[in-house]
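Pilot study result, target chain (111 residues):
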Amino acid sequence: MGKQAEDIVNFLDSVSNEKLENWQTKEYCIVKNDRIGFRLDHQGINKDGSGMNRLYIQPVKGGKTRNSKMDSNNVLAQVQAADPAEPENVRQALKDSYAQKGKLIVAKRKA
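Predicted structure:
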């Protein structure tokens, strides 16, 4: 596993379960970690009637690595998740999206 992959896993593992469910409807930064160099953003709700929440991981501008400084607008992982969500499903979907080079992943619904 490369350094950025390890950092993404550490970042996601540090996000509390409470931050991975019950989102607001507006666009906002859910959590930002300047030390690790990433942020998790809520980019609103799909307007297609599905009600799915759009979540993205991006590098923090001015992060600790040269790549994160240059690529602060790049999407490293993207997930659509229903609310209520199962936090561990959202966390795993974000990890899977990163592993698949930012491919959109739909998180499993809460049972």
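One observation from the pilot: The mean pLDDT is 89. A full batch analysis is planned for the follow-on phase.
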